[in-house]
Amino acid sequence: MLQRLIQRPNCLLNVRNRHQFLTALLVNLMAISHGIGVGWLSPTLRKLQSQDSPVGFTLNVNEISWVGAMLGLGAVTGNVLLGCLIGRLGSKLCLLFLAFPNTCFWLLVYFAESVEYLYVARLLAGISSGGMYIVHPIFLSEISSANIRGTLSSMLMLYMNMGVLLGYIFSTHLPYFLITWLVICCPIAYFLSVLFFVKESPMHLIRKGRVTEAHKSFRYYKNIKDDDHEMDNEFEAMRIALTKGNQLEDALTLKDFCTPAAVKAYGIGLVLIMTNQFSCLFPMINYMSDIFAQSGSTMDPNFCSIIIGAVQILGTYGTTLLCDICGRKLLLLVSTAGVTVSLIAFGFFTHYAGIYDLRELSWVPLVLMSLYIFLGNIGLIGCFFVCLVEIFPLKIRAKAASIAIVLTSCVVSLLLLIFPLCLAHWGISATMWSCAGITGGGFCFLLPFLKETKGKSMLDD
C-alpha cells in the first residue's frame, strides 16, 4: 500500500518529485527565519512598551506603528529590487541575496540603542521578505511538476507559520539577546544550502540560451537517470515554448497588458490582494498579544499567541494537503467565508465584554481567533501566492505577478502602520467588523469570477 502511495504522481516522495521536494524544503529555510522575526515582534512589543524594556528605551503607540510599517516599506523595496533582478541574474543568485538583509536584521535587533535601529532592522527584514515573496513562488513554479506545484508553492506559508510559532515561543520564554544568536543560524544555513544544493531553474537557463545546462537542471529536478530519455520530449516542448516566449517578450507592448484576459486577471488579482490584506491576517499576527490583551479575555496574551501560532501551522499544512486535491477556488471560498464569520463574532464578543462581565467566557476569544486563523491560513494565506502567479496570461505573467506582489507589499505597509492606530482610536470591535465587511465583499466577488487553476501548466494562458 505504501509503495502504491509513493508511486502516485502527486506524492511528494514519488521518484520524479523528490528533488523538487528537497529543494522546496531548503529554500524555505528563509521563510522560517522571516516567520521567527514576525512572531518575535508580538510579545516583544509588549516588553518594549514596559518600564522593564530589555533595550533601555520604551516605545509609544506611534513608534510601534512605524516599527510595524517598516516591514511593509522594506517589502516594497524587496519586491521591486528582486523583481528587476530575477530575470537578469536568475533565481539562484536572488535566493542567495535574501540571506544578507535577514542576517543584518537580527544583528541590528541585538545592537539596538534607539528606536531607529529597530526601524532599519524591520526595513531590512522587509527587503528580505519582499524578495522572498517574488523569488520563491516564481522559482518553485518553474521547477515543479503541475501535479504538485500547488503543494510546493503553499509550503512557503507553512514554513513561515512554523517560524511565527517559534518566534512567539522564543520571545515569550527566552532572553531578548539570546534569541538573536539562535535565530541568526537560520539565514546562514539557508545561504549554504542554496549555494551547494540548489540548481538554477531550467526555464531561466533556456531563456538565457544555456540549453545544455537547462537540460541538466531539468533532469535533476525530474530525478532522471543518465540513461533515461523518457521525458526528453517534455523538455523539448518547454524549450520551444520558452524560446518563442522570449521572442514574444521582446515585442511586449502596452496592448498585451490590455487584452480582455489580462484585464479580467487584474480585477481578480486586485480583489485577491484586498481580501487577503484587509482580512488583516498578517497585522493580527504582528500584534496578536496586544489584541488578546484588549479582547476582554483574562487568559495570558503570550500563551494565547503561542496557541494561535500552532493553529496557523495546522491551517497551512491543510493547504499543502488539499491545494492540489480540492483546488484553489474551493479553499479560497471556504477561507473567506470562515474569516468573515469569525471576525464578526470576535467583534461582538469584544463589544459585549466592554459592557458585561464575561470573565467566565475568557476562552471564547481564543476559540474565535483560532478559528479565524485556521480558516484564513487554509485558503487566503496558503493559496494566495499560488493563485497570484497562475491567474495571469503567459506573456505578461512574470511582470504582472511582480507588480501585484509590489501592490500587496504597499497594502501590507499601510495596514501595519494604521492597524494599531485603528485599535487605539476605533476600538477592537469596530476594527474587526470593518475587516469582516471587506472580506465578505471579496467572497461575493470571487464566487462567480475566480477560475480554478489546479493542474494548469505554466506554459499555458
From TrEMBL:
<feature type="transmembrane region" description="Helical">
    <location>
        <begin position="176"/>
        <end position="198"/>
    </location>
</feature>
<feature type="transmembrane region" description="Helical">
    <location>
        <begin position="330"/>
        <end position="354"/>
    </location>
</feature>
<feature type="transmembrane region" description="Helical">
    <location>
        <begin position="305"/>
        <end position="323"/>
    </location>
</feature>
<feature type="transmembrane region" description="Helical">
    <location>
        <begin position="431"/>
        <end position="450"/>
    </location>
</feature>
<feature type="transmembrane region" description="Helical">
    <location>
        <begin position="93"/>
        <end position="112"/>
    </location>
</feature>
<feature type="transmembrane region" description="Helical">
    <location>
        <begin position="366"/>
        <end position="388"/>
    </location>
</feature>
<keyword id="KW-0762">Sugar transport</keyword>
<dbReference type="GO" id="GO:0051119">
    <property type="term" value="F:sugar transmembrane transporter activity"/>
</dbReference>
<feature type="transmembrane region" description="Helical">
    <location>
        <begin position="118"/>
        <end position="140"/>
    </location>
</feature>
<keyword id="KW-0813">Transport</keyword>
<dbReference type="InterPro" id="IPR005829">
    <property type="entry name" value="Sugar_transporter_CS"/>
</dbReference>
<keyword id="KW-0472">Membrane</keyword>
<feature type="transmembrane region" description="Helical">
    <location>
        <begin position="400"/>
        <end position="419"/>
    </location>
</feature>
<keyword id="KW-0812">Transmembrane</keyword>
<keyword id="KW-1133">Transmembrane helix</keyword>
<dbReference type="InterPro" id="IPR044775">
    <property type="entry name" value="MFS_ERD6/Tret1-like"/>
</dbReference>
<dbReference type="InterPro" id="IPR050549">
    <property type="entry name" value="MFS_Trehalose_Transporter"/>
</dbReference>
<feature type="domain" description="Major facilitator superfamily (MFS) profile">
    <location>
        <begin position="23"/>
        <end position="454"/>
    </location>
</feature>
<dbReference type="InterPro" id="IPR020846">
    <property type="entry name" value="MFS_dom"/>
</dbReference>
<dbReference type="Pfam" id="PF00083">
    <property type="entry name" value="Sugar_tr"/>
</dbReference>
<dbReference type="GO" id="GO:0005886">
    <property type="term" value="C:plasma membrane"/>
</dbReference>
<feature type="transmembrane region" description="Helical">
    <location>
        <begin position="152"/>
        <end position="170"/>
    </location>
</feature>
<feature type="transmembrane region" description="Helical">
    <location>
        <begin position="21"/>
        <end position="41"/>
    </location>
</feature>
<keyword id="KW-1003">Cell membrane</keyword>
<dbReference type="InterPro" id="IPR005828">
    <property type="entry name" value="MFS_sugar_transport-like"/>
</dbReference>
<feature type="transmembrane region" description="Helical">
    <location>
        <begin position="265"/>
        <end position="285"/>
    </location>
</feature>
<feature type="transmembrane region" description="Helical">
    <location>
        <begin position="64"/>
        <end position="86"/>
    </location>
</feature>
<dbReference type="InterPro" id="IPR036259">
    <property type="entry name" value="MFS_trans_sf"/>
</dbReference>
<protein>
    <recommendedName>
        <fullName>Major facilitator superfamily (MFS) profile domain-containing protein</fullName>
    </recommendedName>
</protein>
